[in-house]
Amino acid sequence: MSVFRDDFLWGGACAANQFEGAWDVDGKGPSVPDLCTNGSHTSPKWVTTAVRSDRLYPSHEAIDFYHHYEEDIALFAEMGFKSFRTSINWTRIFPTGMETEPNEKGLEFYDKVFDCCKKHGIEPLVTISHYELPYALVEKYNGWASRELIEFYMNYCKAIFERYKDKVKYWLTFNEINCGTMPMGAILETGTIRGFEGPTDKVPDNKQERFQALHHQFVASAEAVRYAHDHYPQFKMGCMICFITSYALTCDPADEIANQKAMQISNWFCSDMHVRGEYPSYMKRYFAENNITIRQEPEDAAILKAGTVDFYTFSYYMSNCITTHKDADNVGGNIIAGKKNPYLKASDWGWQIDPVGLRYTLNEIYDRYHIPLMVVENGLGAYDMKGEDGKVHDSYRIDYLRAHIEQMAEAVKDGVDLMGYTPWGCIDLVSASTGEMAKRYGFIYVNKFDDGTGDLSREKKDSFYWYQKVIATNGEDLG
Asked: Which of 274, 297, 401, 441 has the fewest CB atoms below 10 angstroms from its CB?
């Protein structure tokens, strides 16, 4: 008997701006990622204020899921997917975000995607806003720094809830909302980059603006959850957190305090808002010490309390160490870097691989909130090189995923209520952090390269067949 529940949602995850392409097709408007160029392993991508002929914009074609969705979903079904986590591109539905009526062509596309999923017995898990803010809202309002975006977001939610009420049950309000607590979040999450053009690692940071933008997102999320609960009781509404597990590098008490603070700000703050529906006490000191004053309307407290989520989802790729000691070695990371852990190996991009940390994280989250959990992103970004036989033999990816699934099983034995697992980039797609195709995660290889070339053909990697077996045995056979 498997330790995983009988209705466990095995599947995979993607995001519209990273795999759909067709960036200006059928009435779609430009979103923030449509004005982000490709980067490389060693240099950052750029933000531009208009599309330029001398730069490559990877979201414009991506892997062209827009025209390949039937083929791709059939491959997901062949693997045995029970769930497919994807997102709706806001600018397909409302090209500027400010329209009063939705774009019918955009609605029709997602009708086809969800119908195709249902035909194959796959449950869609839909992220409403996954780094796909309409760029027009950046230009006019400086993104989520302005409270007006709550109304635009709700107009968008109401349109997609009504249209897909019989096709989608599971919804996530914002992807990795806690990225807004980090400087890079100005691009990825809050869109507070009006007038900026340049390397993404040089975005000017304004903490007051970022945390005010987050407040508006918290209210918008709560409004969407409350509206869904009132009008569509069949819906299950979740949050999504980029969980950056960290440990104190040493047993120095100062390191323990530093790590506790890092975990509070980076991980717990946003999920406390989503699950508990109120500002946690530890943020008062942080706001005071950073000269942050959150402007709230009188009704906000009640909205936040009434709009708490039904389940908690998160991404988990790696862990970091935190220290007050200046001589520690640095390592790379997902959104935020940290200090080197001597007990861990790292990926090609310097992300420290820590399967046991996933068990630890699942226990910490579940002990804190006592609501169902789902790991909706996890995976290994790597250079996938074809062998002499022309195939991708990605045993390193299988090893990574096997180790993490083993630790999920241990967490379930510990008592964690785990409802599903959707590894990231189940088909190769554009990296959000660098705009690269070379950083591949998928079970399915896509012939598309960083210079924009490639015929977009799909090929199964070794991990495709391995994951097929994992799903067929409900996680029992990991060999």
From this structure: 297
Structure tokens at 151: 């109304």
Single-letter amino acid, residue 426? C
Angle of CA points 173, 178, 184, to nearest 5°: 115
CATH of the domain at 402: 3.20.20.80
State the Cα–Cα distance between residues 16 and 65, nearest whole angstrom: 9
Q: Is residue 273 part of a domain?
A: no
Cβ neighbours of residue 364 closer than 8 Å, sequence gap 6 or more: none
**For 85, phi and psi rounded to 5 degrees?**
-90, 120
Q: How many domains does the chain have?
A: 1
pTM of the model: 0.97
DSSP designation for 264: I
3 state SS of 339? strand
Residue 465 in any domain: the answer is yes
Residues with Cβ within 8 Å of 419's Cβ and at least 6 positions away in sequence, in order, are 5, 7, 8, 9, 311, 372, 373, 374
For 174, the token pair is 């914002």
pLDDT for res 335: 64
109, 92 in Cβ contact below 8 A?
A: yes
**By C-alpha distance, which of 176, 31, 167, 171 is closest to 89?**
31
Residue 479's CB is within 10 A of a number of other CB atoms, namely: 9
Place of tokens 């946690």: 280
Collapsed DSSP state (helix, strand, coil) of residue 199: strand
Provide the domain limits for residue 155. Answer: 9-244+312-318+329-472
∠315-316-320 over CA atoms, to 5°?
Answer: 130
Whether the CA torsion 197, 202, 205, 210 is positive or negative: it is positive
Residue 220 tokens, joined: 């918008």
pLDDT per residue as tens digits for the range 70-85: 999 999 999 999 999 9
Catalytic residue annotation: 176, 377
Strand partners, 127: 87, 172
As a residue count, the chain comes to: 479
Q: At what angle do helices 462-472 and 65-79 cross, to 10 degrees?
A: 50
Alpha helices (H) along 200-264: 207-231, 253-263
With vertex at residue 88, the alpha carbon angle to CA 462 and CA 209, rounded to the nearest 5 degrees, is 110
Q: Token pair for residue 410?
A: 């241990």
Burial string for 371-400 (b: 16+ CB within 10 Å, else e) reads bbbbbbbbbbbbebeeeeeeebebebbbeb
Nearest to 73 by CA among 117, 112, 18: 117
Q: Do the domain assignments include residue 271? A: no
pLDDT 10s digits, 169-217: 999 999 999 999 998 888 889 999 999 999 988 888 999 999 999 999 9
Pure H helices in 239-387: 253-263, 269-276, 282-289, 300-306, 355-369
